[in-house]
Amino acid sequence: MAKILDTSNAKYWLSKEQLEDNHIVSSKLAFDLTIDKLSTYLNFHPTKTGTFEDLNDILKKRSALLELAAYTAAYREIYSLNSDESTLVTDVREKINNAKIGIYVNMLVKSLRRLRHQGVKYVELSFSNPKTIIAIQEVMKDYQVPGIKYNFLLSENRSYKYSNFKNAEKLLPEMIKKGYVCGFDLMGMEKPITPNDYKPNSPQHTSLYDKLEGVLTSLNSLNDDSVVCRLHAGEVYFESDIKEKKSNPEKTLEIIDQIVNDKGLKVPPPSIRLGHAQNIVKTDNYLNLLRKYNVTIEINATSNFALGNTKDLSSIPYKWYLDNGINVVLSTDGSGFYSTTIKDEARIANAFTDTTTVKKVLKSEQEELTRRGM
Predict the structure, then answer these.
(1) Does residue 34 carry a pLDDT above 70?
(2) In angstroms, rounded to a whole number, what is the distance separating the alpha carbons of residues 240 and 191?
(3) pTM of the predicted model, to two decimals?
């Protein structure tokens, strides 16, 4: 077992060997710097643009930093383990995961306070690990951040395996009933929807139909229209959109409509929300589907501009949606990445629409807050 370096002013320790190898200069310093970096990792800014791949690179860096912080925080516990070889890896991983929960909670509380200061009243957080969501929520019972409410959404990526979605389908009802999450969030819609996505029982269950069918059925069974199904669609324009005169948001709703008809569901519930839905083809069919499912549109102007998905802020269709009776709410979509605030979103809406449109946005947002008991 490596010797612990006993430094009286250090809150966290590393072994002498690791220090001598220059892996990390000081564990206390490393921990503090890592947490600071995790909290303010602002490589993206509204004045800069990047790509979705750039964003994924940042996510990987953040994940590595988080692992480092958790390892540093749990170091003494890890080095005090007397486990046999067969269970050592599992025990070390458990210690690191427990430390990560503490870091997540710390960051969540700070984020909620910062958002509350900006005037935000309600936040939804997407997370793909059910065990971590439950662990965070259990710890958060001991914390109060007055003036702001939050919920988690169990998230999956469209590119994930079919088994991920089957797992989500199984876990969602109980997680919702116990208050761990308020619904489901589908990411990974940065690629065009193809004819295969409409097919039930597709090869290797790769279609969007197969992946959404169980989740929608599961959410529908709860008979609660406050339960959410959010789908990230309309961030990007594709060449096929112009040729087919149909965009990803419309195709996504067509697939939902197909599932509803095939399974005899009544939707809502869940409450369908399209996150982004900025790059669209304005068709009557799309409008009819939006109305049929009482869809709410979440506009994330700044993050889409930062990623280069929106070149011209004046093209965002706030007015088209609202003039046609579709609810629109403003969202930041990850202010930690883009250094955005809800006030930035409000300024953009004010600058590129009119007073009547802004009033309609405020009305939509108030309706959503009322649904959330605020």
Answers:
(1) no
(2) 11
(3) 0.81
